[in-house]
Write a structure and sequence with these properties.
Layout lengths: L7 H4 L3 E6 L3 H12 L4 E4 L11 E5 L2 E4 L10 H6 L9 E3 L4 E4 L10 E4 L3 H9 L3 H25 L14 H35 L2 H8 L3 H10 L6 E3 L3 H14 L3 E3 L4 E7 L2 E7 L4 E9 L3 H7 L3 H5 L2 H11 L7 E8 L23 E4 L4 H12 L8 E5 L22 E8 L15 H18 L7 E7 L1 H8 L35 E3 L13 H21 L7
Parallel strand pairs: 1-2, 1-12, 2-9, 6-14, 12-18
Antiparallel strand pairs: 3-4, 5-8, 6-7, 10-11, 11-12, 13-16, 13-17, 14-15, 15-16
Length: 559
């Protein structure tokens, strides 16, 4: 229903909570909140829900997962809690998982590296390049899985609220510190001392240093550095937007109202307390809580009146801290509509449809050595697009893989495909902080570099292209309100993780403003299509709602 069709008086005080932004995390929050009896409104500025996790038909009859393309990290607990399969969620596991061809084959055996979920298959593939690496690969996976398992619990639990200082909440302060100590104790118990030292090195060391400890083969190291695959990755039928639609369906079934084309201008704050939102058309909508699914940067720079921040020392310091965070990004997304399947020189198509096993996984190009990855990065440090950019081609077919359409026939017409290119690097800023302005010529030159690179592996690729959609960092910022074009809502560096994401003063999804919360990827556990920030933020809001309702009834509540 259009905003203009709803009378302002009819919706006054109609909502308990308003979610700003209909990205997947905002929708997850809304669904959990509604399932706990709260009246929820989601305001999405675009004509389509999902934020970066959307599917759009940019080219007639071709549907693209425009900014994100994998749901590999989406939390199983959310799929179950929100009954997403009941609401139509279907996905395909990626197997094989990755394909790295060589421009110049070394021999018949040493022409490409294809990895899957099968240990025996991987050992044979890697042995073509190094028998030692073939023996170490499974050990490496087990080692990395052990590291991952030790922190899995963190993805489904809120970080401690380290900044709680109100005397009224002494219990909460003690609980937060106890929680932090418990986390460290469990990690130490799981990893032992030697494993804890390995974990520390994994967090603080470079990827090349870690991989050099395990392997000697350049193509394997470069493949792992590019993709870092552990576990089963999967694609959503209908593209990433289908996942968002399933979450929205679950939310609506619980009573959530979702409005598109409904941009929020400002969070309404009176006497240091949230009272609702003001839309760009001037309409005011009242609510007790507001949760921002926008980036923390956008929330404090665009959704809160500068006067409110400037008149509050704590908010002024918080805004300064968040604004100075790392939002650098060098990723450009290029979506292509193809009228046929690419034919790679080192592994020619042999089937009638042209679809080969390597078309059903992530294809890595210009990633044959660690040196090539480093070279691409150095170009970006010098303020120019990479001359030999790293390219991940995801989804090629009418079904869904690297060419998502290879597994998912809903994405393209018969015998046609979509190819999603995740490329690096196209820098957003120079080292001195100055923004880089890319002209149309600059963008077209980079596109030409990408296509020329693919042609070296799959001659004739360009002739298959019938349409394209390019999203440079500046475009991602403008289209999806992602500061710096960073799809993770901020770098996932150690100083911007866990209880310091986005800062220690709002690590628990609460902000210093009474009734204002953050529920997007700026919060723990960070970016990627996980749904975890949305779920954990909702649990925090539900806890606070219950506490405040009890206070109103005159009952004493400690947490």
């Amino acid at each position: 229903m259009a905003v203009s069709a709803i009378a302002s008086t009819a919706i006054k005080k109609a909502y308990d909570i308003i979610i700003v932004g209909g990205g997947h995390n905002g929708l997850v929050s809304a669904s959990y909140l509604a399932r706990n009896g709260l009246r929820v409104l989601v305001c999405e500025k675009r004509w389509i829900i999902g934020g970066a996790a959307c599917t759009e038909e940019i080219i007639n009859d071709f549907k693209f997962s425009r900014a994100s393309y994998l749901m590999s990290l989406f939390r199983p607990i959310i799929i179950n809690d929100l009954e997403l399969k009941k609401h139509g969620l279907k996905y395909y596991f990626r197997d094989p998982s990755s394909y790295t061809p060589l421009k110049q084959p070394i021999s018949r055996e040493k022409r490409s590296l294809l990895l899957s979920q099968n240990d025996e298959f991987n050992a044979k593939q890697i042995a073509n390049f190094s028998h030692a690496d073939a023996q170490n690969y499974q050990k490496y996976e087990h080692w990395l899985q052990k590291m991952s398992d030790s922190i899995q619990v963190l993805l489904d639990t809120s970080p401690p609220d380290l900044q709680t200082t109100n005397k009224q909440f002494t219990y909460r302060r003690i609980k937060s510190w106890t929680q932090l100590l418990t986390v460290y104790k469990n990690m130490l118990k799981h990893l032992k001392l030697s494993g804890s030292l390995d974990f520390y090195q994994l967090l603080t060391g470079s990827v090349s240093k870690v991989l050099d400890r395990w392997f000697e083969c350049e193509i394997l190291k470069a493949t792992l550095a590019t993709d870092g695959l552990i576990g089963a990755w999967c694609y959503v039928e209908g593209g990433m937007g289908a996942l968002s639609e399933c979450i929205a369906s679950s939310a609506r079934s619980s009573g959530v109202e979702i409005r598109m084309n409904c941009p929020v201008k400002e969070v309404n704050i009176k006497n240091s307390k949230v009272t609702g939102v003001i839309l760009e058309n001037g309409e005011e909508i009242e609510s007790n809580f507001v949760a921002s699914n926008a980036t923390a940067f956008s929330t404090f720079n665009h959704l809160i009146s500068p006067n409110i921040i400037e008149n509050n020392d704590e908010l002024r310091e918080l805004k300064r801290y968040i604004t100075s965070g790392d939002y650098t990004s060098g990723t450009t997304k290029i979506n292509l509509a193809l009228k046929g399947i690419p034919n790679f020189t080192v592994d020619p198509n042999t089937t009638s449809s042209g679809i080969m096993p390597h078309h059903q996984c992530t294809i890595h190009l210009n990633t044959e050595t660690m040196g090539s990855l480093q070279g691409a990065y150095i170009d970006a440090l010098n303020g120019k697009p990479s001359q030999q950019p790293m390219i991940e081609m995801v989804g090629i077919s009418e079904q869904i893989p690297v060419i998502p359409s290879v597994l998912d026939h809903t994405l393209a017409p018969n015998n046609c495909h979509v190819a999603l290119l995740f490329t690096q690097y196209t820098p957003y800023r120079l080292l001195n902080g100055q923004k880089i302005v890319m002209s149309e010529k600059d963008k077209n030159d980079y596109y030409r570099t990408i296509i020329n690179s693919i042609e070296q592996y799959a001659p004739g690729f360009e002739k298959l292209i019938v349409g394209k959609d390019m999203l440079f960092p500046q475009d991602l910022e403008k289209e999806f309100s992602l500061e710096g074009g960073n799809i993770f809502h901020g770098a996932l560096s150690l100083d911007q993780l866990y209880a310091f994401r986005p800062s220690s003063s709002c690590s628990s999804y609460r902000t210093p403003i009474d009734g204002l919360y953050l529920c997007g990827s700026s919060t723990h556990p960070g970016g990627g299509v996980t749904g975890a920030p949305g779920r954990l933020a909702a649990l925090t809001m539900i806890q606070d709602w219950k506490r405040k309702k009890l206070f109103k009834k005159g009952k004493k509540q400690l947490f």
